[in-house]
Amino acid sequence: MPKKKKTKKAKKIKKVKLTNKIKQPLKQTERKSTIPAQDEKPEIKKIKKQPTEKKIYNLKDFVVYPKHGVGKITAIEKAKIGEIDIQFYKILVEKEKLTLTVPINQQSKLRPIASINQINKCISILKTKPKIKRTMWSRRAQEYDQKINSGKIYELAEVVKDLNKNTDIIADQSYSERQLFEKAYERLKSEFEAVLKTNSEEVQKKMDKALGRVNISDNAE
To answer: Is the full-model pTM beyond 0.90?
Structure first.
């Protein structure tokens, strides 16, 4: 009887040793597969960032700062912070009566004003039918606000088009809708003025005609 117990114990020990041998090579293959993925990521990021830092703007150039809209470079100045010389733009945003200071090495935040072709495309966007979404207004308002502050002219035109009510009657829009519409409308109008080099009234007529808006001044005549 005691001899049989010893043979059972010996068999169990052998099984444990075999399972340990199988698990070890699996861990090594997992480590190898993760190494090349980490090496690839930084190469892609470097290629995307290189062209944005090369643009240089001159005095009196119009530029767009995403969160504030169109501004004019009024000065290019230098300052010394510690032992480092920093060069920066001073940008006047007339609509907001604001002067921005933007370091030249952070100019990727700026973009040049649109071309005539881009303005024409914006007018064609304004002529299209607005997109009616069924989502809650709070969510839509966030989306519109993000588009306005993106600094992208086509997204601005889309917000103006979607929130346009074809009328000047304030009661047709909620207060928050009206605010977002006016913010997007003024941003787009200021860029139209800078590109077309014309006055505010002419630009407004051009935009309102594309939107099919009924102007109070037109009705009075």
So the answer is: no
- Where do the CATH 1.20.58.1290 domains begin and end in the chain? 116-220
pLDDT number for residue 207: 96
Every domain range in the chain assigned CATH 2.40.10.170: 62-112
How many angstroms separate the CA atoms of 154 and 112, rounded?
14
d(CA 184, CA 130): 15
Q: Cβ neighbours of residue 197 under 8 Å, at least 6 residues apart?
A: none
Query: Measuring CA to CA, which residue among 156, 178, 152 is closest to residue 165?
Result: 178
Task: Answer yes or no: are the C-beta atoms of 208 and 215 closer than 8 Å.
Answer: yes
Residue 65: phi and psi, rounded to 5, are -100, 120
DSSP state of 73: E
pLDDT tens track for 148-205: 999 899 999 999 999 998 655 555 578 899 999 999 999 999 999 999 999 999 999 9
116-220 CATH: 1.20.58.1290
Question: Could you tell me the fold of the domain covering 62-112?
Answer: Thrombin, subunit H (2.40.10)
Which residues, 6 or more positions from 220, have their beta carbon under 8 angstroms from its beta carbon? none
